[in-house]
Design brief:
Number of helices: 4
Largest sheet: none
Radius of gyration: 17 Å
Order of helices and strands: HHHH
Structural class: mainly alpha
Shape: flat
Strand content: under 5%
């Protein structure tokens, strides 16, 4: 009964949270790290421009930064019952790292 009510409100049962993610899963850890680095670099660039510094900061976001940042969204969606399965996350991580091998 409670589960039906939870789903009726569009919520996710606690047991369903994090089904596709193991935080120590090394199969996608490198991709996650690249995504995190890319997002930090983009935020630094945005803050510099906000402060009036129009020249780009030294060092550019890694190749495919936008794709890696979108990977963060895929992982977050998967943590709450949507998004991709663990196997799909690993496959997407491998594809990204193969497509953009250099940070």
């Amino acid at each position: 009964m409670a589960g039906t009510l939870v789903r009726a409100f569009g919520l996710v049962l606690v047991e369903a949270v994090y089904p596709a993610v193991e935080l120590d899963d090394l199969d996608w850890w490198e991709c996650w790290q690249r995504a995190d680095d890319a997002s930090v670099r983009v935020i630094q660039e945005w803050n510099a421009r906000k402060r009036g510094r129009l020249r780009p900061l030294p060092g550019r976001p890694p190749a495919g930064a936008d794709k890696f940042i979108r990977f963060l969204d895929l992982v977050a969606d998967s943590m709450f019952g949507g998004g991709l399965t663990r196997a799909e996350l690993r496959a997407e991580a491998a594809r990204l790292l193969e497509t953009y091998p250099q940070p």
